[in-house]
């Protein structure tokens, strides 16, 4: 079975600062994918970034980067230059076979 | 950009009634999924569907639930006799292939309230 652990239920960051959201995972599969999704208050799930287990380089998508440390089984999301619109719930997820397993999420609040 | 469309966005139903949640996946995607999120909790996998049959289902997906692809575009989730604990946001998702490198596209969700 797969498991995702997000230990930060809530985080605050000042506008324009960088923030790291933690995610650790557990799986016995050798091939897997790691995802981050953003869920604003409106409820939709917005894909942010993906990292494959065999990818040697950390994934980046604009202001988002994924700090992938395979030996430590961690896949932290780094958001640079935070914006007020980044305030939302953030979910880390692992995909093996045909399903995603999500963590409990981190609520990020960006302040002025 | 292609998107997954879910209808309705909100549904209120009485306990014991049947509900059908509808989804239109991205046209060239072959794999379809339903997830649910009880308010304030994490997103949970319900079922995956490919080639007109269920590929995998979770323990949540009991006999009260069923999925169907009635035509070439729609993908539906039916709950036969709703319970209060079925109140949740239901997300449909689709992907080109089950391999994780293809990723998923989620719909905006249907918020189901059972009263």
Give me the secondary-structure topology.
The complex is a heterodimer of chains A (112) and B (115).
Chain A lengths: L2 E3 L4 E5 L4 E3 L2 E3 L6 E7 L6 E7 L7 E2 L2 E6 L4 E6 L8 E9 L2 E4 L3 E6 L1
Parallel strand pairs in A: 2-12
Antiparallel strand pairs in A: 1-4, 3-9, 5-6, 5-10, 7-8, 8-9, 10-11, 10-12
Chain B lengths: L4 E3 L2 E4 L5 E6 L6 E7 L5 E8 L2 E5 L7 E4 L6 E5 L8 E8 L9 E2 L3 E5 L1
Parallel strand pairs in B: 2-11
Antiparallel strand pairs in B: 1-3, 3-8, 4-5, 4-9, 5-6, 7-8, 9-10, 9-11
Give your account of this protein's structure:
The complex is a heterodimer of chains A (112) and B (115). Chain A is an all-beta fold and 112 residues long. Chain A is built from no helices and 12 strands. Chain A starts with a strand and ends with a strand. The mean pLDDT of chain A is 94. Chain B has 115 residues and is mostly beta strands. Helices cover 0% and strands 50% of the residues of chain B. Chain B contains no helices and 11 strands. The termini of chain B are far apart. Classes of the chains: A mainly beta (112), B mainly beta (115). The interface between A and B is medium-sized, with 26 and 26 residues.
């Amino acid at each position: 079975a797969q498991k995702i652990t997000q230990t930060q239920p809530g985080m605050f960051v000042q506008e324009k600062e960088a923030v790291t959201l933690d995610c650790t995972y557990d799986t016995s599969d050798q091939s897997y994918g790691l995802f981050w999704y953003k869920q604003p208050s409106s409820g939709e799930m917005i894909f942010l970034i993906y990292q494959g287990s065999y990818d040697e380089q950390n994934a980046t998508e604009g202001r988002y980067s994924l700090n992938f440390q395979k030996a430590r089984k961690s896949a932290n999301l780094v958001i640079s230059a935070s914006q007020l619109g980044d305030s939302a719930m953030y979910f880390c997820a692992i995909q093996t076979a045909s399903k995603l397993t999500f963590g409990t999420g981190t609520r990020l609040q960006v302040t002025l | 950009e292609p998107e997954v469309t879910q209808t309705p966005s909100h549904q209120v139903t009485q306990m014991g009634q049947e509900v059908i949640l509808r989804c239109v996946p991205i046209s060239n995607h072959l794999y379809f999924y339903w997830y649910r999120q009880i308010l304030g909790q994490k997103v949970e996998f319900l079922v995956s569907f490919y080639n007109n049959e269920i590929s995998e289902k979770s323990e949540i997906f009991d006999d009260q639930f069923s999925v169907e692809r009635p035509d070439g575009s729609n993908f539906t989730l039916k709950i036969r006799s709703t319970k209060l604990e079925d109140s949740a946001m239901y997300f449909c998702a689709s992907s080109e292939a089950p391999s994780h490198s293809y990723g998923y596209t989620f719909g905006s969700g249907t918020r189901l309230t059972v009263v």
